């Protein structure tokens, strides 16, 4: 049975094309578990408060549980309604008759959808967090394996200074930890129960909103009925957090893509996460990494869509807000799948330690430490900077490196260079000397990762 709202003030049937245009059932049907659970809690409260009889309340709750089970098992197909709310109410009324018509007492579709979306977002956050945590643990495990693997870090895509692969991957650990913090923050503002706000002006029935919040596991209730039905800040915040997650996944994807090229050869992506060319049989394309990078644009587009949707809406509810679900659902689905695929792909990546070390020996990555060597001997940094710049120009011209320069050549540029310069400028010594918090020395990286995993445990509670 379909509940037809046109049975009220209207005396003319809705235009068929307009009816199809207005219907949201094709996409909000996935909200059925939240809609039914919300209705169960609402009817339990109505019965407890004496707004409807306890007998009708129990009948409705029993029938709603049956509808939930039937949909979940595929016995009941969601169809022939304007939206998921009217579908559930229609089936309920068909099964119970007059008692079923009492389900909508003291509520509106406006606060219903606000409730459903909040329940969906809460569950989405609790699903995304474990996926993020799993990725962080994978990154931390790989980083610990490579605390001694020397590589060059870059700025402006030019070799800059030597670090370790462990230190490099730990940077992503920190990024994804911040992402969990953002999700946790978002959860606090999502965990507020709007039901009872009705269309926008609450209700004259003696409802108990705190009881509904308790039954549904919300920590509090909304404090303004107009805001409650028109607020989608929490939704924008979740999509923003997902966009940030995707930006981090995209940056990692980009690095894996170019690290796996023959020009770099730093990493090899597993065949399980690659594809070949339809014409070039030698190709091993990093399709998963490329698609994660590409799908980041979709998620960022969802954020833009939601912001543009809400930017000019007057209070309170407007049908424009029906369009929020496309962006939200696609964003959450995409982010979740990308997190899982990145975790799987990363766990099978093989890192080429000799190539990483060789890369660190190129590009004069010891230059900063060479300048610091002279500063420690008493030279002002700018003077030392100029001297090392001239040395690099000399080495480029004469095809030499810091390792192949003789002590006499060092002293041609400054008499402050002593016999210990080669040892001081060795890659491992440079890295080992950086022991402060957040630095690349193996001991510092181990300390950082231990603290990161401890922080993860607290964030995941």
Fraction of residues in helix: 55-70%
CATH-defined topology of the largest domain: Fumarase C, Chain A, domain 2
Q: What is the domain total for the residues?
A: 3
CATH superfamily of the largest domain: Fumarase/aspartase (Central domain)
Count of helix runs: 19
Beta-strand portion reads: under 5%
State the distance separating the first and last CA atoms: 44 Å
Structure description:
The protein has 461 residues and is mainly alpha-helical. It folds into 3 domains: 5-106, Fumarase C, Chain B, domain 1 (Orthogonal Bundle); 110-202 and 209-355, Fumarase/aspartase (Central domain) (Fumarase C, Chain A, domain 2); 367-424, Ribonucleotide Reductase Protein R1, domain 1 (Orthogonal Bundle), CATH 1.10.40.30. It is 62% helix and 5% strand. It has 19 helices and 6 strands. Strands 1-2 form a two-stranded antiparallel ribbon. Strands 3-4 form a two-stranded parallel sheet. Strands 5-6 form a two-stranded antiparallel ribbon. Strand 3 (192-193), helix 8 and strand 4 (220-221) form a beta-alpha-beta unit. The two termini are 44 Å apart. The mean pLDDT is 96.
In short:
With 461 residues, the protein is mainly α. The chain has 19 helices and 6 strands. 62% of the residues lie in helices and 5% in strands.
């Amino acid at each position: 049975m379909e509940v037809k709202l046109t049975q009220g003030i209207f005396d003319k049937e809705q235009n068929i094309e307009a009816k199809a245009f207005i219907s949201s059932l094709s996409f909000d049907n996935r909200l059925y578990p939240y809609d039914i659970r919300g209705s169960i809690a609402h009817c339990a409260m109505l019965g407890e408060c004496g707004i409807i009889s306890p007998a009708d309340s129990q009948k409705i709750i029993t029938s709603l549980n049956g509808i939930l089970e039937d949909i979940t098992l595929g016995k009941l197909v969601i169809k022939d309604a304007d939206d998921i709310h009217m579908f559930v109410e229609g089936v309920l009324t068909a099964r119970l008759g007059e008692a079923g018509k009492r389900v909508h007492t003291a509520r509106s579709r406006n606060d219903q959808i606000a409730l459903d979306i909040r329940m969906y977002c809460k569950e989405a956050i609790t699903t995304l967090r474990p996926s993020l945590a799993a990725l962080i643990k994978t990154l931390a495990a790989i980083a610990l394996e490579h605390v001694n693997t020397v590589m060059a870090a870059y700025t402006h895509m030019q070799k800059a200074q030597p670090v370790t692969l462990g230190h490099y991957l730990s940077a992503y650990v920190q990024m994804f930890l911040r992402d969990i913090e953002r999700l946790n923050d978002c959860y606090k503002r999502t965990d507020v129960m709007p039901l009872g706000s009705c269309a926008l002006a609450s209700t004259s029935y003696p409802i108990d909103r705190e009881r509904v919040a308790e039954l549904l596991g919300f920590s509090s209730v909304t404090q303004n009925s107009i805001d409650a039905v028109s607020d989608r800040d929490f939704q924008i915040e979740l999509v923003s957090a997902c966009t940030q997650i995707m930006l981090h996944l995209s940056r990692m994807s980009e690095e894996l893509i170019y690290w796996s090229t023959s020009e770099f050869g730093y990493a090899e992506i597993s065949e399980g996460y690659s594809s070949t060319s339809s014409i070039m049989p030698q190709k091993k394309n990093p399709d998963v990494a490329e698609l994660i990078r590409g799908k980041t644009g979709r998620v960022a587009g969802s954020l833009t869509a939601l912001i543009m949707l809400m930017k000019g809406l007057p209070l309170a509810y407007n049908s424009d807000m029906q369009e929020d679900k496309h962006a939200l659902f696609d964003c959450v689905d995409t982010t979740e799948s990308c997190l899982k695929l990145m975790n799987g792909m990363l766990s099978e990546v093989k890192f080429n330690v000799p190539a990483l070390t060789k890369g660190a020996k190129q590009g004069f990555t010891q230059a900063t430490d060479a300048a610091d060597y002279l500063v420690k001997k008493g030279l002002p940094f700018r003077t030392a900077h100029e001297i090392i710049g001239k040395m690099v120009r000399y080495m480029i011209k004469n095809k030499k490196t810091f390792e192949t320069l003789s002590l006499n050549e060092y002293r041609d540029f400054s008499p402050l260079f002593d016999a210990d310069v080669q040892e001081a400028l060795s890659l491992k010594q440079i890295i080992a000397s950086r022991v402060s918090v957040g630095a690349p020395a193996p001991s510092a990286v181990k300390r950082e990762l231990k603290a990161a995993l401890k922080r993860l445990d607290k964030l995941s509670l």
